[in-house]
Amino acid sequence: MIWILLLAPQAFAQLQDESAVRAAFVFNLTKYVEWPRSSGELVIGFVGESSMGEILKKMLDGKASESRSIRVLASPSEEQLPQCNIVYIAYSSPKKFRPVLEKLREKGVLTVGDDYSFALNGGMVGLVRAGDHIQIMINLEVVQESGLKISSRVLSLAAIVRTSGGG
Amino acid sequence: MASLLISAGIRRVRAAVFLCFLGTGVLGLAQEPADGDLTNLSIEELAHVKISSASRYLEDARKAPSAVTVITADEIARYGWRTLAEVLRSARGFYTAYDRHYTYLGLQGFLQTGDYNARILLLINGHRVNENLYDSALLGTEFPLDLDLIDRIEIVRGPGSSLYGTNAVLGVVNVITRQASGPATVEVSGETLSYLGRAGRLTGTLQKGRLSGVMSGSLFESAGHSKLFYPEFAAPETNNGWAEDVDGDRYAQGFADIQYGNLRVQGLYSSRLKVIPTGSYGSNFNDPDDRTTNTRGYVDATYSWKLAANTDLHLRGYYDTYRLWGTFAYGGADPATRSLLISEAAADWGGLEIVLEHRLGRHRLVAGASSEYNFRIDQKYYYPGQPTFLSDHANPWLMAPFGEMELNLTPKLTVNAGGRMDWYSTFGTALSPRFALMYFPNSRTSLKYIYSQAFRAPDAYDIYFSNNLDPTKPSQTLTPEDIHSHMVVFERGLTSWLGVTVDGFHNRLDQVIENQPDASGNPDYVNAGIDRGKGVELEVDAKRASGWAARASYTLADTQDGVSKTVSENSPRQLAKLHAAIPVYGRAFAGLELLYTDAQQNYQGVRIASSLLTNVTVSTKPLWGGWKFSASCYNAFDRRWATPTGPEVIQSAVPQDGRSYRFKVTYTRRIERERSKH
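Above: the input entities. Below: the structure tokens describing the complete assembly.
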């Protein structure tokens, strides 16, 4: 990630840790996405290589969103994956995240990632670092193929992209 | 559209801060929602939240082993500060001196006019701005970056050599530039100031996917005072003490910062010319050829790798350049005897740095190594047409490993230990350790004890003028100055909008490199000085949701020159500051600044009276889709005041400006694109 030589990373008074901001975005997505099947529980699965899983668990596990309670599953099994409502994929190369996306195609699972090429390679929502804030990238086609609906409130903040051929 | 921008701005200001008052005592500090939880923000607010550019493994930004103040771009606009020196002067414990050539900065009771701020490390985005010849930190109009490009300034008080090496004796100032966000923008700004000053700037920003960039150019020109009176020169042969039209100041600057994914390349180039009205260095008084041009430039590239889930590696390479061109007229105004001394200095250097950041459970570790080589440091003095009479070439280099550990022993107790070992080709090694013990009884309170050592390496100028001018003197090797510092910092958030900071410091500076002119009056630098300083400071900050904010600070410093056993030179015993920003009709802010500086003595023991400055600025928020206006009145009550000088001039103090003004207009235009792009 972009590094500014602030070796003793001191007081960033009004600045937030980007993982926490991403987790907060995921929480917002639970409010503004409609899943084809509804239940009393909203399951967020985490797959990947970063500390994001712990942060998701710390910030969102047990929280209530639109009268459903959130449960965070770190490293879900093969059977558990498609049963999640949201799967956060923290891999930084298409080689690694594409297979996961394949497994979740058209299963009504919202896929969220943090790599720049995530949404261009079949992911639904990318939460990418853009300068000094987090930018949402949405691949609307993949979202619609899955039977999910995202509120226009989120779409108006996002950059809408299309799957690029050949990644 | 305009109202959306304004309300987005307000909401951003209200965006959550996890940790109240991070010991920063800053007005720009955002209001926090009831439980400091980011998930309470709306998605629109979240989209505007600024993310920290530092290590993502930082457990807690409060755990900085120093007393830190952050000053934001909003504050710079609201208080109408014109130079970096004015920004820093507003912070607790700082004061400045200006001799109509350079601006000098004092902190914790220390200001040495001849050292060109060599005891403050100045950084832009982590890149060292102090040049390698005089180690000067350029803070006035000579600062090479337009203030409008600044996002925030992080002021870290206390020695910082444990990570940064030389110059970080009294403190480290890191200027962080603004980043592009959203679509492309073009911004134009124009200013008009007293003394026929005018400035213009053109900035473009772009952010698209992985690419983001800021590019900017600025021009400034001021005729300065048309008449300045110096009683020391009140004789007929020196125009009866009047310096006329010899206070001109101008600069041209360019800046670029391009980021693509994990790669960042930035650079700047700035050239500033100042005509000097004081007859400095014994030169002719009232001579328009007394002038210097300082040029500073660099290119800096950094790249980051994510080695593992908890490990980041960063690599940085840079190339810097500095040029000084000075002319000084000597021999009186009579063309038969008048001659022009040229002082030319050039320094080019480059460096490589590698830093590893790693999280180990609850703890954090930073380790790195820095190396720098000077391709040239040349100093030359000559009269045109005559052989050079002083000339020096040097190629010093340095290497330094450094590291820091943040051990979070319990959720309430943290120990921070670190150090840096510098190897200099000029003098050998310097070790700079730092140790901090920090206690956090709750989320609103912190108590820290910090012990640190720092150094200032003798620079090429000191070394040359300690060795060369008097061949009868035994040659000597200058050693670095060092500082041993103890600091205690207490920060507490009293309510969600009110916080207080109390700090105490105890400094001992040894081997201070001083100019003890030899019998012929030539400069001769030796390690001779000792300075002691101790003091206590208090700051109260308030910021309300309605938009108004205020901060007040008080510093009591007791310094002593360890050799003469008298109060140190240029050291006011007390400083008091008050800042208040009041929203006006929801569309503007009134910013009030009151600065009190106690009496001080210059290096000769001459007393300089205390001063109370009142500065007022009215600035608008963006209006009508992108227009911002600002009007400022500095020294509103037109009080007479002066700051102390050093041996470069014969005046004991230089009178400062009376009431002056600035008007500024900025227009920002977003270049919109179609929504469904790729």
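Note for the figure: The longest helix of chain A spans residues 18-32.
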